[in-house]
Amino acid sequence: MDGQDAALILEQARTMVDPVLRAAIESLPGSMRRVALYHFGWEHADGSPAAGNAGKAIRPALVLTAAAALGGRREAASRAAAAVELVHNFTLLHDDVMDRDTTRRHRPTAWTVFGDADAILAGDALQALALKLLTEDPHPASATAAARLASCVIELCEGQHADTAMEKRGPGEVTLDECLAMAEAKTGALLGCACALGALYAGGSAEDVEAMDAFGREAGLAFQLIDDVIGIWGDPSRTGKPAGADLVARKKSLPVVAALASGTPAATELAELYAVPYDEAQEGALERTVLAVERAGGRDWAQLQAADRMARAIHELSRAVPDPEAAGGLLSLAEFVTRRTT
Amino acid sequence: MDGQDAALILEQARTMVDPVLRAAIESLPGSMRRVALYHFGWEHADGSPAAGNAGKAIRPALVLTAAAALGGRREAASRAAAAVELVHNFTLLHDDVMDRDTTRRHRPTAWTVFGDADAILAGDALQALALKLLTEDPHPASATAAARLASCVIELCEGQHADTAMEKRGPGEVTLDECLAMAEAKTGALLGCACALGALYAGGSAEDVEAMDAFGREAGLAFQLIDDVIGIWGDPSRTGKPAGADLVARKKSLPVVAALASGTPAATELAELYAVPYDEAQEGALERTVLAVERAGGRDWAQLQAADRMARAIHELSRAVPDPEAAGGLLSLAEFVTRRTT
Questions:
Q1: Is the ipTM of this complex over 0.90?
Q2: What is the SS3 assignment for B104?
Q3: InterPro entries per the record (chains A, B) (predicted)?
Q4: Cross-chain residue pair B161–A94, CB shorter than 8 Å
């Protein structure tokens, strides 16, 4: 099973992609380089070097592993992998500005340190850098990959818009279908694109590319469902977030929307709780909310739905990569991202 | 002189590029399409159709006319022209958010109508759309053009950063060189890139492409210098802005920074005036500020500098296009954008 272990795949991806990523960011003009190096965890706010904590490299690992699964060379896809990671981080920079989020990867977000303008500009520059990396890549698939990544950016923007717009509406005004479509655009699209780019770089057929995209999308939805479960029932000592953080913020995450749509008495109770802001002075308010989501079937639904999405992902993967040995790495990655509750 | 007249060239560029631009924008998901159609003047805020007032199409006209000057077909470069216009408008959307500007092309800016988040997302989507248009273009120059446009976006971001950072500093802390470098990055870079893309699409040599870029950059600087002159001495009935608007806002425009750096008694007076916010209750305060910039030589410097930049632009153009007949269209455009004081 050498090379099939997710932790090892992720570590190898970091090792291969970080130099490309770092060189690309070092090529930026001073102001944007500084924001980007801070955001990626390579510098402290004062510009001194930091150990680096740029996330788990799941997207670059998907690009490289998808390329290898279709018989391509990992190394040949390293620029594509870096480009996907740049796009991911451009959206994080902008999302944090829009959502006024103050913490990212256990550190103050870039806009809280450098201001809105520089965080927006650094995000703009990272998007441009991603497309520049791809369009300057002499690989024959690079132009097609660049066009696909640009289309994906548009879908990510639509996902973020839907997320922002949904949070402004009342708890009863959001349907489960809307919520799933938002999660697919916001999370599934880029995981799908990462796998599709790997397939393109391996010279895969149009069918392979679409099957790989579908694999990544379905795995991405499974990931989002599990992430939403963790946002309610996750162990604070492991997640780094306070217990029930999503419920305290009255977030319309997938288990909540499923619970609200269940037509049960617990759904009515949950709707009443969600109609007013969380009040920590009220004894047991959080526990009652957690229990209402659970009794209305939100947790069970999310876990079943995640399992169903994983099954679909595996089916799509088997279309593009029938050999289980060759598909092993991608399966490990998909399992890794959805395994975090156990 | 048929086809050499700037107004005619601009009108023809609009006619050729608008359908490409419009189709690209119509392909966006609903939320971003709405913001973009509003920003381009094709829809009112309520979504009803509008006559359209998307600016003068100078950048698309430069792409098409540069291509034609080097023997290329205008039509073949229409996607590249639309891509440059999309990038320009993506930066306008984001700059307006950062600068809190409330008026653009005589209408409320997009963020005042749709909120910061949707204006940022629409800008992000327009950047992606620009790169998508180019990378999906089957033209042999499209990948090189896309990489060049992506590099240009990074330079535009740096220019906007420098502009924002400069406005926060004291009037005596900004040098003329910094101010010129900012204007080159913020305005010159995209005009240069437009001409370079035209050259690339015409199959021009590397030297032609660089000379065309330099032509556009120098013409862009001349344009910015004249624009800054208009911002102080322009006729309000023609500019649509109140007289001396840039001085009222204490803007460190090029004539102001040149005046401050002149070492004259008028420079000292100007520095004192700029040290405190404009107070309209103070009789004659604006007139005194205008006069101080003039006496310190700010107006003369800007006009001489603009003429010098135009001379350099014409020299660069003659390197790429020695035949004056072939260069006529680009000369007309360069003169058009710098002619607006007369």
A1: yes
A2: strand
A3: Isoprenoid_synthase_dom_sf, Polyprenyl_synt, Polyprenyl_synt_CS
A4: no
Residue B103's H or E segment, with its range, is strand B103-104
Buried b (16+ CB within 10 A) or exposed e, A66-94: bbbbbebebebbbbbbbbbbbbbbbbbbb
Q: Please write the tens of the pLDDT for every residue from B138-155.
A: 999 999 999 999 999 999
Residue for token pair 């791809």: A134
Residue B90 C-alpha, separation from nearest chain A C-alpha, in angstroms:
10
Determine, for residues A132 and B150 on separate chains, whether the beta-carbon distance falls below 8 Å: yes
Residue A10's SS3 state is helix
Domains of chain A: 6-338 (1.10.600.10)
Q: Which residues of chain A have pLDDT under 50?
A: 1-3, 341-342
Report the alpha-carbon distance of residue A115 to residue B20 in Å, rounded.
36
- Please answer whether residues B152 and B190 qualify as being in contact, where contact means their C-beta atoms are separated by less than 8 angstroms: yes
Phi, psi dihedrals of residue B206, rounded to the nearest 5°: -60, -40
Residue type present at position B263? G
Question: Do B123 and B95 contact (CB within 8 A), yes or no?
Answer: no
Residue B158 to residue A132, Cβ atoms within 8 A: no
Three-class secondary structure of residue A42 per DSSP: coil
Per the CB < 8 Å rule, is B131 touching A120? no
The 10s digit of each residue's pLDDT in B149-206 is 999 999 999 999 999 999 888 878 899 999 999 999 999 999 999 999 999 999 999 9
What residues in A contact B137, CB-CB < 8 Å? none
Nearest to A131 among B28, B90, B131 (CB): B131
Write the CA distances from A42 to A30, A38, A49, integer angstroms: 15, 6, 6
Does B29 sit within 8 Å of A158, measured CB to CB? yes
- Count of CB pairs separated by less than 8 Å, A with B: 136
Closest Cβ–Cβ partner in A132, A150, A164 for B132: A150
Query: How far apart, in whole angstroms, are the C-alpha atoms of residue A254 and residue A297?
Result: 12
Q: How far apart are CA A43 and CA A49, in angstroms?
A: 4
